[in-house]
Design brief:
Layout (H helix, E strand, L loop, with lengths): L2 H21 L9 H4 L5 H14 L3 H8 L12 H6 L18 H17 L5 H27 L2
């Protein structure tokens, strides 16, 4: 990515942050801090930037990625749905997608942002579930490949 492309990505991310905050600011100025600040979760920041870098040469897909901030009638990240996003392997104390910053969380968000960039329909419970499952399926394939290499097959 060149300097202009990086600058455009930074501007688009700042607009996503603003849209997310605005979605949870009431007319009295009160905020739902947790959902309003969701876009600044480290897993989201890094995954969003990673996907922007990968998609920068695909005008249609990067446009849909950047267009996430224009979600109609709701918060762009659908924070309530993210909070319910989980996998069967998650521990009981897992609070949903977007509360942790580990590799697994970042990988799940990369899958989510890639999937969203394909259609541009925003983030829904169904796409969250699909992204989480795709992440785990890819991890299982990688583990199987490592096991296969050990056997020498």
């Amino acid at each position: 990515m060149d300097g202009q492309t990086l600058k455009a990505a930074a501007k688009e991310f700042s607009l996503l942050v603003k849209a997310q905050r605005d979605a949870f600011t009431t007319t009295s100025g009160a905020r739902n801090g947790d959902f309003g600040e969701k876009s600044l979760d480290f897993a989201i920041v890094s995954a969003w930037a990673y996907v922007a870098g990968i998609l920068h040469n695909s005008p249609e897909r990067i446009g849909r990625h950047y267009g996430l901030r224009q979600a109609l009638g709701k918060d762009p990240l659908n924070a309530a749905a993210l909070a319910k996003g989980r996998h069967k392997t998650d521990p009981e104390n897992y609070r949903g997608l977007g509360y942790r910053t580990d590799v697994k969380e970042r990988g799940r968000f990369v899958e989510l942002f890639f999937a969203q960039a394909e259609k541009g329909n925003g983030i829904s419970p169904a796409i969250i579930d699909m992204a989480i499952k795709k992440y785990h399926a890819k991890q299982a394939v990688l583990e199987a490949n490592k096991a296969e290499q050990k056997v020498g097959a």
